[in-house]
TrEMBL record:
InterPro entries: CELF3/4/5/6_RRM1, Nucleotide-bd_a/b_plait_sf, RBD_domain_sf, RRM_dom
UniProt similarity note: Belongs to the CELF/BRUNOL family.
RRM domain segment(s): 7-88, 95-175, 374-452
GO BP terms, alphabetized: mRNA processing
Localization per record: Cytoplasm; Nucleus
GO cellular component, one term: cytoplasm
One Pfam family named in its UniProt record: RRM_1
Keywords: Cytoplasm, mRNA processing, Nucleus, Repeat, RNA-binding
Protein name according to UniProt: RRM domain-containing protein
Superkingdom as given in the UniProt entry: Eukaryota
MF terms in GO: RNA binding
DNA sequence: TCATATT
């Protein structure tokens, strides 16, 4: 039914309203289709905007790729259709070898001669430092997996080259994904130089610090920072700055304070908390339970909503005086606990059991655009921010339809920007007003309306 | 620095 060397194609940039039956006519013209499947979310069944396509004949796939890939744009899409071998087809990485333990003086040609006996070589490159000196390793790409395998079998460990400290290494080169993984492991090991407990302690200190602010503690916090990881230090120092700036623990500091984030009244002064020792706090709701409404904080219904417009956290509370200073401090801390540890990956709160108790917010749906004017673009996100932290951060401003951090697929690293979509433009505006310029670590968020689809198109 | 999605 299908050729042995058939290629499974990945089809990207297809409108989410097109199903298999709609797609078929587009692709049939290049040959008989063996299988065509729209990719859907495993749990929600949601159309992911892409598909897999296998033709019976390899040649059909090649023709379709040539004719369609990046060649036309389907209605409603802002980028051209993608037609290329699926990742599962192993983009030719299975014929590329990494060669280690070469001598420093070996040139491309020397390596090539060594590998020539095993097949036709497409590519042969010794890796070099910027100054041109060999790194003692190379990539060699054969035309087929079998040839590469033959070279491994014969050459790996077979000899020790002059100047090398160990016998020759010949193995398949890392795939793009493996490289990403490796990079992440390196980052992780960097952080692990400091004991894992140090990180948690840092989070804990910062937390208690923010709840109960005393000058002495602020000083010790900075002193302690010297022993924390760079990330924890940034977080700690940042929090300390915040505490100094604003006794109520609110961490938003817009560059242009269009809407100042301050307590609404001088008569009810939050700094009362300054002298309060660390008490038995109501358990923080942590990341997953983060809510702009303080009712969730102490388990009691609040008589008034603290956020009246998503910006003035304390605006409504002065009249009844229902919240004691500690509760105020705590309500303010929701910002801290939500944004801070999350921002730095320090999500293990001082009360980790809370995490297991509070069920994670329902699985965030695929990225979706809201109506025009409801979608915001956020740049300068902390590297550690994921969809969920982004969601938490913007939840106070309205119904979030979607929160998506962009991730480099090869490395799994955040690209430090993302989108949040609300169900109405007012929420989006409120979020922009409140969060544009929001300082996290050394950076300030840039929050603005997402560029409309047709922007930047000359015609 | 503006929705790239891989059963």
């Amino acid at each position: 039914m299908k050729e042995a060397d058939a290629i499974k194609l990945f089809i990207g940039q297809i409108p989410r309203n097109l199903e298999e039956k709609d797609l078929k006519p587009i692709f049939e013209q290049f040959g008989k289709i063996y299988e065509l499947t729209v990719i859907k979310d495993k749990y929600t069944g949601m159309h992911k905007g892409c598909a897999f396509l296998t033709y019976c004949a390899r040649e059909s796939a090649l023709k379709a790729q040539t004719a369609l890939h990046e060649q036309k744009t389907l209605p409603g899409m802002n980028r051209p259709i993608q037609v290329k071998p699926a990742d599962s087809e192993g983009r030719g990485e299975d014929r590329k070898l990494f060669v280690g333990m070469l001598g420093k003086q070996q040139e491309d040609d020397d390596v090539r001669k060594m590998f020539e006996p095993f097949g036709r070589i497409d590519e042969c490159t010794v890796l070099r430092a910027p100054d041109g000196t060999s790194k003692g390793c190379a990539f060699v790409k054969f035309q087929s997996h079998a040839e590469a395998q033959a070279a491994i079998n014969s050459l790996h460990g077979s000899r020790t080259l002059p100047g090398a400290s160990s016998s020759l290494v010949v193995k398949f080169a890392d795939t793009e994904k493996e490289r990403g993984l490796r990079r992440m492991q390196q980052v992780a090991s960097q952080l692990a130089v400091f004991s894992p407990m140090t990180l948690n302690l840092g989070a804990y200190n910062a937390y208690t610090q923010a709840v109960s602010i005393t000058l002495v503690q602020q000083q010790t916090l900075v002193a302690q920072s010297a022993y924390l990881s760079p990330i924890a230090t940034v977080a700690a120092v940042q929090m300390q700055q915040m505490a100094a700036l604003n006794g109520n623990g609110i961490i938003a500091t817009p560059i242009t304070p269009i809407t100042p984030i301050t307590p609404s009244s001088g008569t009810n002064t939050p700094p009362a908390i300054a002298a309060t020792p660390v008490p038995a706090l109501p358990p923080p709701v942590g990341i997953s339970g983060y809510s702009p409404v303080p009712a969730a904080a102490n388990g009691q219904p609040a008589s008034e909503t603290i956020y009246t417009n998503g910006i003035h956290p304390y605006q409504a509370q002065s009249s009844a005086g229902v919240l004691d200073p500690l509760q105020q401090a705590y309500a303010g801390m929701q910002h801290y606990t939500a944004a801070y540890p999350a921002a730095y990956g320090l999500v293990s709160t001082p009360f980790p059991q809370q995490h297991t108790l509070v069920p994670q917010q329902q699985q965030q749906q695929q990225q979706r655009e809201g109506p025009e004017g409801c979608n915001i673009f956020i740049y300068h996100l902390p590297q550690e921010f994921t969809d969920s932290e982004l969601l938490q951060m913007f939840l106070p401003f309205g119904n979030v339809i979607s929160a998506k951090v962009f991730v480099d697929r090869a490395t799994n690293q955040s690209k430090c920007f993302g989108f949040v979509s609300f169900d109405n433009p007012t929420s989006a505006q409120t979020a922009i007003q409140a969060m544009n310029g929001f300082q996290i670590g050394m950076k300030r968020l840039k929050v603005q309306l997402k560029r409309p689809k047709d922007a930047n198109r000359p015609y």
